[in-house]
Known about the structure:
There is one protein chain. It contains 7 helices and no strands. The chain has helices at 13-45, 48-71, 79-155, 159-173, 176-182, 186-191, 196-205. The chain has a domain at 13-129. The two termini are 53 Å apart.
Amino acid sequence: MVAGMIKLYPDRTFPAFMRVLGDLTTIAWTVAWAALGWLIYQTVLGLEVIADGITNTGSTFNAWINSFRGAVPGGIPLLTQFLLDIADTLQRYSGDTLVSAGHQVHDAIIQLAIVLALLVAVPPILLVLVPYAFWRWRDMREIGAALAFVRIASITGRADQARAVLAYRAVSTLSFRQLMSASADPVGDIAERRYDRLADAMLRRAGLDPGRLAPPPLPELPAHKGE
């Protein structure tokens, strides 16, 4: 459970501020592109009025044809059936066709709105969010693991040994600029077992306050009662 510890932000103010700023910037970026995608979706959906107009026109034609069909006089051989056939033909090739075309255009507009919104919003969101989220997750786990290391060393009373480990790790992982900034003589510090400066630099690099590895206070000796 200790190995799986995470710590959201470093102890030091400036690194913590930079991570908070990165988090807020990433969230703002995601929200902005999502809002733009939604705006494009709503804009393209506005074209539905064209599809609705086509459908309404077809429905109007069908209403006229139905009125015409109702006005056809009955009981006249050939003429009645001829007029009804004309009405059916007009409905099939005008009203029904327009209604069907209106529904198809309506569905196509919805699909186009979804595709355009996703194409606009998703790529820039993923381009920033995925690598940043991956880096932040590793960063939080790394800081949490460093904190677990420090806590275990402090609890077990092995702070001095932990400083030695951190000092050797600082020599092997820090850049030369960081190493010389931490100590004017890192080789001498290692040789003479002066681990404090290198260990502190490594803890700061890990995002922790060096004071977390302070040795536990010595137990107070019991006071002797006077005779």
